[in-house]
Design a protein that fits this description.
The chain has eight helices and 16 strands. It has a six-stranded mixed β-sheet. Strands 10-11-9-12 form a four-stranded antiparallel β-sheet, covered by helices on one side. It has a three-stranded antiparallel β-sheet with strand order 4-5-16. Strand 1 and strand 2 form a beta hairpin.
């Protein structure tokens, strides 16, 4: 595996040096394309999404997809290193996107290269997607219609190489409560803040009945509240934001309609519904293969492109989710090498 790990590290170092914040991944996609050409891997490209299949593709076989994203978040102001200057310190590779999700990107690609020449009873496809960090319309959603039928996918997000077999969904809701302005010194007006209180207290205390073994309860949290213009004016509008994290038992659309019925003083507007909770059956061959190799399935609280995939999938990748979006982010060479070995060993013995 040594040469493949070296290739992975070389590519990762080059990608770190190219700023690829979401919606600005052009140069990173160009660099990936350059490497795919170097390794004689004919590939497709749609926007900044790239994919490559296998030369022995057979429409009568099932298909496994390996996926990771090429974009990053913006660096925080607390970085002590240059986020766009890759630095090797012992076994650690520092740089923005190294952990989320450059390590998974280069490890899945090298595993794909190895598996091309191994015995398989399935097709294999590698996809690098854009705009994952912002769930953008030019990321996975743009390339999905161009993909062949996929039977199962591995998403290379940092999970410590343990399989996340379930993932929370996300819905962001804006709430508005209207009042009537007036002078605070007199008994006039309708205070929008007071009008909202009963609904907000209900939201704080409500618990959905169905809890997931892996994901726990569906969570609803008010994260923003805005109201008022000055101390002596009764506020006539209150705006708040609800962060909803669904488990696999509740679709976003259901939760939204339920809240509209219960929060009668509020006008609610969902920003989108498409980021649903996702999971893969515990008896799926890929999950069974993970268990055979001593892995421990868990539920992930964080969102990924997995939420957009209409087929079974799980998250499995090198690195630690706690390093993601944090200053001085890093991945280790040992983690990348171990991931390549794990992907190959997991899939080489997979019988779909």
């Amino acid at each position: 595996m040594g040469n493949y790990t070296n290739d992975a590290v070389e590519l990762l170092m080059e990608l770190i040096a190219i700023p690829s914040v979401s919606r600005s991944e052009d140069q990173a996609a160009d660099k990936l394309s350059e490497y795919l050409d170097r390794w004689n891997l004919p590939h497709g490209r749609e926007g900044n999404n790239l994919w490559v299949g296998c030369q022995d593709w057979d429409n009568n076989r099932k298909t496994v997809m390996l996926n990771a994203h090429i974009d990053t978040v913006k660096p925080t102001g607390s970085w002590q290193r240059d986020p766009f200057r890759p630095m090797l310190d012992g076994d650690r590779i520092y740089g923005l996107g190294s952990n989320d999700c450059g390590g998974g990107l280069v490890a899945t690609l090298q595993a794909y290269r190895i598996l091309l020449n191994r015995n398989r009873n399935f097709n294999i496809l590698w996809l690098a997607s854009a705009e994952e960090e912002v769930s953008g319309e030019n990321g996975l959603r743009r390339v999905l219609p161009l993909m062949p039928p996929i039977d199962v996918a591995i998403v290379g997000e940092p999970t410590g190489m343990q399989p996340a077999t379930a993932e929370r969904g996300l819905m962001v809701i804006d709430g508005y409560v209207h009042g009537v302005s007036g002078h605070a010194a007199r008994e006039e007006g309708v205070n929008a803040i007071y009008e909202a209180l009963d609904d907000l207290v209900w939201l704080r205390d409500y618990r959905f009945r169905k809890e997931s073994e892996l994901l726990g309860a569906t969570k609803m949290t008010v994260t923003v509240v805005e109201s008022g213009t000055q101390h002596n004016v009764i506020p006539d509008l209150l705006h708040f934001v609800i962060d909803v994290r669904t488990n696999e038992f509740y679709q976003n659309e259901f939760v939204f309609e339920f809240l509209k019925k219960k929060m009668t003083k509020c006008e609610l507007q969902a920003r989108s519904f498409h980021l649903h909770s996702s999971s893969i059956a515990s008896d799926h061959p890929l999950v069974k293969r993970c268990l055979e190799r001593g892995m421990r399935p868990f539920g992930s609280p964080t969102l990924s492109d997995q939420a957009l995939m209409p087929w079974p999938s799980l998250k499995l990748g090198p690195g630690d989710s706690a390093r993601s979006h944090a200053a001085d982010e890093f991945i280790t060479i040992g983690e990348i090498d171990g991931a390549i070995n794990t992907y190959v060993g997991l899939l080489e013995g997979l019988n779909l």
